[in-house]
Design brief:
10 helices; about 180 residues
């Protein structure tokens, strides 16, 4: 299961989304339910791959079903499932849904001590608030990620730095944006 999970990630990042879906399903079939972090990661790439090939509604149904079926909504599995859901909502400009998921992810990550997932939630909220032109909130959200720069995912950190720069520029603080 672990090797298939890695192959599925490789297929996703190589734009071979149909292959990634097949590999994710195989990995899930072989991985014990107690391996919540690995299963969550596989489900994350399954949901994102499904959206990438135009199966957005099927991905949403799958991810919501998995999240709702999970007894514990703040464990690694549940949080990675909604991480995928939030990613898909952001990419399809469903900002209200993305905001709701960002809040769940940030709160759940904080409660469970999974800072990496909390940072994703804060990042999603920053993007949503920036898109809604709620710049003060966006700045707060992106700043939360930047304060955890040593434990944040590199992509989340990088995008939050860029988000902060955009917020500062939008607020007419061009000198601060360059810092």
């Amino acid at each position: 299961g672990q090797i298939l999970a890695l192959k599925a990630q490789w297929a996703y990042f190589s734009n071979q989304h149909t292959l990634a879906i097949d590999l994710c399903r195989q990995a899930l079939a072989l991985t014990p339910p107690s391996w919540t972090y690995l299963r969550g990661g596989v489900t994350l790439f399954l949901g994102m791959s499904m959206q990438a090939i135009g199966q957005s509604l099927a991905a949403e149904r799958l991810l919501l079903k998995e999240y709702e079926a999970n007894n514990e909504t703040n464990n690694a599995y549940a949080l990675q499932v909604i991480e995928a859901l939030g990613f898909n909502y952001l990419n399809s400009s469903q900002l209200n849904d993305a905001e709701r998921i960002g809040q769940l992810l940030a709160q759940g990550g904080a409660i469970s001590g999974l800072g990496l997932l909390k940072n994703w939630g804060d990042y999603y909220l920053g993007v949503v608030h920036f898109e809604q032109y709620k710049l003060e909130f966006a700045e707060q959200d992106f700043s939360k990620v930047n304060e955890s720069r040593f434990t944040a995912n590199l992509a989340t950190y990088r995008e939050s730095v860029a988000g902060l720069s955009l917020v500062k520029q939008s607020r007419g603080k061009n000198t601060e944006a360059w810092q």
